[in-house]
Amino acid sequence: MGAYVSNLRSVPSEWASRAYVDAAGHAEKYRRSVAEPEAFWREESACVDWIKPWTKLSDSSFEETDFGIQWFADGTLNVSANCLDRHLTERGDTIAIIWEGDDPSQQRTLTYRDLHQEVCRFANALKMLGTTKGDRVTIYMPMIPEAAVAMLACSRIGAIHSVVFGGFSPEALAGRIQDCDSKLVVTADAGMRGGKQVPLKANVDQALKHCPSVAAVLTVRHVGIDLPMAEGRDHWWHNLRERALPECTPEEMAAEDPLFILYTSGSTGKPKGVLHTTGGYLVWAAMTHHYVFDYRPGEVYWCAADIGWITGHSYVVYGPLANGATQVMFEGVPSYPDHSRFWQIVDRHQVNIFYGAPTALRALMREGDEWVQKTSRSSLRLLGSVGEPINPEAWEWYWRVVGEERCPIVDTWWQTETGAAMITGMPGAVAMKPGSASLPMFGVVPQLVDGDGKVLDDTAEGNLCITQSWPGQMRTVWGDHKRFFQTYFTTYPGKYFTGDGCRRDEDGYYWITGRVDDVINVSGHRMGTAEVESALVAHAKVAEAAVVGMPHEIKGQGIYAYVTLNAGEAASDKVRQELVHWVRHEIGPIATPDVIHFAPALPKTRSGKIMRRILRKIAEGDTSNLGDISTLADPLVVDGLIATKGD
Ligand code: WT7
After folding, report:
1. Which residues line ligand 1 (CB under 6 A)?
2. CATH topology of domain 517-644
3. Is the predicted ipTM greater than 0.95, yes or no?
4. Could you say which protein family the record assigns here (predicted)?
């Protein structure tokens, strides 16, 4: 994160007077959330309708001896009933979802009543296909209302969904289906992005060659293409829908029953199935959505994230729908048909609250202000940012050009593991600093530590930990509870380690500096360097590979791969293209290497460990200060790398 400038922007007075919390309210709520959690959560957990109210708040410990995380454990509820049924009397005819297709001529709206009926039908269809409570259902869908319908239908009957982003390859999809033994896959014939078809059902067919656990595939007709349907296995949603009743009693779930699995990349090994449970997650998603976006009935909210990521789970599906919001759901991309698309959608649907990622802003910023300025955007009153640190330049552009210095920006730091926003602005309460995610959310206790685990107080920069559990915390890694403990609670015993570096300034504001582990953040999407490496070494010509992040103007970070070819293989542009294609095929387009550096050898210590620090420096182009290289088995390797860079 470049130069650090404090640059405080005060809370606009109209916000201070109208928001759910002002500065004093924020401070008081935060204090109570930590000092009197029982009373605080008694109040805040009422944002959710409980079937049986909870009596025991939390039973959580990050210590090895009594490790475990539980919230509201004896309470019961149903998530879909909270997102749908409870709105029907007052808001049945209110629009829940305004869908905007990739093609700007395509739109659909669903009221809460429509959505309720669709979810009930879908839930009944899931039952017809033999799905019961606790079963895993993999959802591989485009951004269409049926994606949310499928998720809510699972939650209605107590099935555990695992949404896999539609941009992942059949191989990546297969791995995620196998890991959680899904019996059913929900997909669409195809999705549309930027005028191009994404062959979802064909990818599923490909993946299922390696997935014996899957007994049924439920396909939504969206694009309308002809498809081979496997007899006995494949079902069209529109056929089942005709037979499915629009009523389905929601299953009473315990607060700690699993709600969903979402796979995410870590610094080692294959992606982890992050498990979130029912009560704590819903309270956390709904509460944070309420305060961070200050949503009021009648307003139009739009989170531009895909449901394949946690942002789509918490801030397209569960948070806004639990709060009865009217929202835009967008299938396409910001650059199609042209670079005005986001702002045209804002005008067309009179969007008041817009939540997006810095990578999209940087890409649009580069195209020039005209694309924004030719739209009105007068409906906008709040802007949000998520997924990666927002550089001050992009922040200023968002503030000045998109929001015309009228709309506060809430920068929200969080992770797949944290369920929802953890360190964040709040429009009526927290003065803004461009580039800072601001202050901890109620109930969140951040701590900075140095490499040895020493706690750093006051103004400091270190590794970001969270010392106490919060309701939306992940509960386990699917099928590997040990890995959950080892990944997050052993680096700094007794604390949850986020993997992020962070600075705290003199006003107590937090500035996320980026990952300090072997995870890279490409366009706000997480990628494990180990995953890309294992894809590369699976190629017949590759002997060894090491992957690091590199600065990238639009994506935030790009993927820089050092590759040593097998003896007898000659480096060439053709091989380079072959490897790029191979990685896209193995993982998906988001893992596309930006640079393949054919390296004669990799810098290793005498014990054979690759020194990534040096590889990062060379990738950044900063070779003046490589630090101590005397522990390398062969220090000359470094000269070889510098000499071959850019070849
Ligand atoms: C990683 C988590 C937040 C949901 C989407 C990404 C980075 C996320 C911010 C932010 C600085 C951020 C962190 C974090 N990150 N939001 N506002 N400022 N960095 O979820 O895929 O689990 O990635 O994204 O490095 O650890 P994810």
Report:
1. 264, 309-311, 385-389, 411-416, 437, 498-500, 512, 514-515, 521, 526
2. GMP Synthetase; Chain A, domain 3 (3.30.300)
3. yes
4. Belongs to the ATP-dependent AMP-binding enzyme family.
